[in-house]
Write a sequence for this structure.
């Protein structure tokens, strides 16, 4: 008889980022300027049918919006309840007895749990080694390779030449390459338009970050039509709420051009915050995302994050970062929020320069 629970679930725990309510929450990399106005207008216009009826089987309104925005065929687009759902479905579609995946670490914290949930063995390759030789991610012939671009939590951005080298080393018969572009809007560079032409490549995006729709749980991905079909089969129907798909579609189309101003201000404030942190002797890693990772003031990230939270600001602690050790990740937002954060940082830990 099959055991319940599965033995390999013993090490899994419910996700708990230890985020007690706080006055200024800069811990989750969402859009601190708010929700895309077109998406918000669609939600406010909701009627009974939006809530009482089942949504489209596969969120066609969002698939069509992505198709129009990036110039890809709708059959090359798949959707999910957040990009997490898309990633989970991609993992599930890659499962076979003894399946393996590799990923460059450190990266998105849910990658290893998603692999375990789907019966896949996960193997980390440390980023400094993977950066020098992307072929290391192919050692042992994995069934799936995960790359986060820009990377969470470091903000680092693998150049297109690195991606091309990985794809070239893999060949057309190698593993599925899953590129997570949750923060690509802030990098102003994407693989999405090219994904349908590259065999066994899936590029995933989310509405939770740049579009300010984290509460709606909506994401999408682009690959060749055969790859998108396998993800759709793995995910199943009715997974994206109709109102979420409509709101995300309005944001993706961005017909009023709201995103341009938000992205521009985010990048300006990111550079300004980086300079302010550097002036305090807390130089962050270079980032192409809407966050910065800087050294933990005391060298211990979790106690430092708890100290800041007690003072009114939430940041995310990380440990074991190459060339840094323990670090704190802070979301970039409007400058008044950044000034508030810097004031609390100085009051809590003092200025080192």
């Amino acid at each position: 008889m099959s055991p319940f629970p599965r033995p390999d679930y013993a090490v899994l725990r419910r996700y708990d980022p230890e985020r007690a309510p706080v006055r200024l929450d800069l811990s989750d990399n969402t859009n601190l300027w708010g929700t895309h106005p077109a998406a918000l207008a669609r939600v406010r216009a909701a009627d009974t049918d939006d809530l009482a009826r089942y949504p489209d089987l596969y969120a066609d309104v969002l698939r069509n919006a992505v198709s129009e925005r990036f110039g890809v065929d709708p059959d090359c687009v798949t959707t999910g309840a957040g990009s997490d759902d898309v990633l989970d479905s991609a993992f599930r579609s890659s499962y076979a007895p003894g399946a393996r995946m590799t990923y460059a670490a450190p990266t998105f914290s849910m990658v290893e749990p998603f692999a375990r949930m789907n019966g896949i063995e996960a193997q980390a390759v440390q980023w400094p080694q993977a950066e020098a030789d992307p072929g290391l991610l192919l050692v042992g012939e994995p069934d799936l390779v995960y790359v986060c671009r820009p990377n969470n939590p470091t903000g680092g951005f693998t150049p297109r030449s690195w991606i091309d080298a990985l794809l070239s080393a893999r060949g057309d018969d190698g593993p599925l390459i899953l590129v997570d572009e949750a923060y690509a809007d802030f990098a102003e560079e994407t693989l999405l338009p090219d994904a349908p032409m590259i065999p066994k490549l899936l590029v995933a995006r989310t509405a939770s970050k740049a579009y300010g729709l984290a509460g709606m749980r909506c994401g999408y991905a682009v690959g060749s039509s055969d790859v998108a079909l396998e993800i759709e089969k793995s995910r199943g129907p009715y997974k994206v709420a109709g109102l979420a798909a409509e709101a995300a579609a309005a944001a993706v189309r961005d017909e009023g051009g709201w995103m341009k101003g938000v992205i521009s201000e985010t990048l300006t404030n990111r550079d300004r915050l980086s300079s302010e942190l550097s002036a305090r002797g807390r130089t962050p890693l270079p980032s192409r995302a809407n966050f910065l990772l800087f050294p933990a003031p005391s060298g211990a990230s979790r106690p430092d994050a708890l100290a800041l939270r007690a003072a009114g600001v939430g940041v995310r602690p990380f440990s074991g970062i190459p060339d840094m050790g323990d670090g704190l990740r802070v979301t970039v937002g409007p400058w008044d929020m950044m000034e508030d954060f810097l004031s609390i940082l100085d009051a809590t830990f003092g200025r080192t320069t």
Observations:
- The CA atoms of residues 272 and 335 lie 9 Å apart.
